[in-house]
Amino acid sequence: MGITHEVELPTEEQLTVQEINLSGPALKAGAFHLGKACEWENNEFILCRDELKDARCCLDEGKAVTSCALNFFRKIKKTCADEFMQYVHCLDKSSPDQQFTPCRNTQAVFDKCVKDNLGLDRPPYDYFARVHVHETERPRPEKEGPVLYPDATPGLPKDAPRPAAKYGSRYLWMW
Amino acid sequence: MTTKAEFKQDMPPPGGYKNIPYKRVPAKSFFGGWAIIGGYLGMTAGASYLYYLNCKAVKIRQLEMHSASLAIYPMLLAERDRAYLNQLRKNRDEETKLMANVEGWKTGTWYGEPIYHTVPKNTLIEPNYQEFYVHSSYNDFKYRAHLALLS
């Protein structure tokens, strides 16, 4: 493997946080409210990942995302556990790929519960597929300029004489 | 004893034979040409409208699924990043342990020769699939590589 000891890799303690112990249907059921509740953290993390293109630089942002999601699901468990589990079961059992369409009734019940208890509205169906503006304090990463080689051929000066071509046209297809 | 059969000339029925029905009998037509063309255009227009409604509904459904996936993507990515980096470190330690007795071996290089000379030393060069699974059993690699075919 091409990873030497000079490459900094975070230790196990830095990487160990409590992960979200939920299965796919539960994540799908909570997806819209979760995305709305943790919008800032999610955007910050994805911005970091896209800007720096290195998983090692965005560990703190990633931990913030996970803890925010964990908090959200804890709140759901405290307030809307029954409605949530009903919705999860519906998503899980109604279609092979967890479609939302067959579960609008249970979804409405869950949405109402979340609205009443957490004050969170369900965002529109295409909310997370839209373009959003993200306000952040994160400094813009430096742009890498073109590489300058010290021994590069200097090239002709701008005002170098350009005499007429001795042996025919210097342009193809333009004689 | 025989009686002489009375001769009788076959004659046409009175009033003459009926005409031979050689004339074409066209099927009864309910619609004229223009009506058929108009009906075709009308039905196509109606069907197109229904098709449009259906397309819109399908599009919305797909967009909703996509949107939900995007909403949980950061969380999944964060978790995956941690697991991935953890495994990379384990792989590196495993390689160091495995090649400890080989003289001149430097972890992450081929006897001291790195993959790239011009990148900074701290650059994380992500391993490919086979490299990532090199210290695990082939069955684990096979399972993960062909996971998409199992579902």
From TrEMBL, chain A:
It is found in: Mitochondrion inner membrane. The keyword Transport applies. It comes from Psylliodes chrysocephalus. InterPro entries: NDUFA8. Accessory subunit of the mitochondrial membrane respiratory chain NADH dehydrogenase (Complex I), that is believed not to be involved in catalysis. Complex I functions in the transfer of electrons from NADH to the respiratory chain. The immediate electron acceptor for the enzyme is believed to be ubiquinone. This is NADH dehydrogenase [ubiquinone] 1 alpha subcomplex subunit 8. GO terms for biological process: mitochondrial electron transport, NADH to ubiquinone. The lineage of its organism: Eukaryota, Metazoa, Ecdysozoa, Arthropoda, Hexapoda. Keywords: Disulfide bond, Electron transport, Membrane, Mitochondrion, Mitochondrion inner membrane, Repeat, Respiratory chain, Transport. Belongs to the complex I NDUFA8 subunit family. Transmembrane segments: none annotated. GO terms for cellular component: mitochondrial inner membrane. It comes from the Eukaryota.
Automatic annotation (TrEMBL), chain B:
The keyword Transport applies. The chain crosses the membrane at residues 31-52. Keywords: Electron transport, Membrane, Mitochondrion, Mitochondrion inner membrane, Respiratory chain, Transmembrane, Transmembrane helix, Transport. InterPro entries: GRIM-19. GO terms for cellular component: mitochondrial inner membrane; respiratory chain complex I. It is found in: Mitochondrion inner membrane. Its main location: mitochondrion. Pfam families: GRIM-19 (PF06212). Belongs to the complex I NDUFA13 subunit family. Complex I is composed of 45 different subunits. Interacts with CARD15, but not with CARD4. Interacts with STAT3, but not with STAT1, STAT2 and STAT5A. Interacts with OLFM4. Accessory subunit of the mitochondrial membrane respiratory chain NADH dehydrogenase (Complex I), that is believed not to be involved in catalysis. Complex I functions in the transfer of electrons from NADH to the respiratory chain. The immediate electron acceptor for the enzyme is believed to be ubiquinone. Involved in the interferon/all-trans-retinoic acid (IFN/RA) induced cell death. This apoptotic activity is inhibited by interaction with viral IRF1. Prevents the transactivation of STAT3 target genes. Complex I functions in the transfer of electrons from NADH to the respiratory chain. Accessory subunit of the mitochondrial membrane respiratory chain NADH dehydrogenase (Complex I), that is believed not to be involved in catalysis. This is NADH dehydrogenase [ubiquinone] 1 alpha subcomplex subunit 13. It comes from Psylliodes chrysocephalus. The lineage of its organism: Eukaryota, Metazoa, Ecdysozoa, Arthropoda, Hexapoda.
